[in-house]
């Protein structure tokens, strides 16, 4: 039984980094590396499951029910199952999209976004897209242009700097400043975000709302539900820390 994998994982991470940098021969890796990597796999599955839950909750709660038209950049075809009943169209772009299942699949995200007419999307969903844009202001301006009044921007974004990120998912992720740019962008009627999986593979999860033409907060965003989701995630992370991490038999 591996009751606390963290020290072993830390040693394994250091060894793998040194080996890939040419600092150590392959045979000098610690004997427990195989067990540690098995623990990493378990952490990866656990993190993936949490992200699936968060993605499902964000789409279900912040895309309006009945007749919504959505533009999603990034993610996977699995996300189709998480949209509210009655969603009439999901247009998706991104290199990892199956073109047989998505409209306009395989087109680069920038091209998809820039090709949309103004005020045509009820929601725009960004899944790990911020690092692909050199200019966040340009991205946000395009998002704001395409959203209908009262429409929602929903984002799920991997952040740089997780202590086990290289082992879990490899390189990648956006600078936290990119997420802060969303919050600081002028014109939102409501914006809120929070971090999750901070101990392994940090992600930012958030929602922003374009104002209604007549003013007032859009009914499409469920601020109370977002706060409940945030508290639930924090409580789960706290229980995991108190429990000493993942356990394997």
Automatic annotation (TrEMBL):
<protein>
    <submittedName>
        <fullName>Expressed protein</fullName>
    </submittedName>
</protein>
<dbReference type="GO" id="GO:0008757">
    <property type="term" value="F:S-adenosylmethionine-dependent methyltransferase activity"/>
</dbReference>
<feature type="domain" description="Methyltransferase type 11">
    <location>
        <begin position="119"/>
        <end position="155"/>
    </location>
</feature>
<dbReference type="Pfam" id="PF08241">
    <property type="entry name" value="Methyltransf_11"/>
</dbReference>
<dbReference type="InterPro" id="IPR029063">
    <property type="entry name" value="SAM-dependent_MTases_sf"/>
</dbReference>
<feature type="region of interest" description="Disordered">
    <location>
        <begin position="229"/>
        <end position="249"/>
    </location>
</feature>
<dbReference type="InterPro" id="IPR013216">
    <property type="entry name" value="Methyltransf_11"/>
</dbReference>
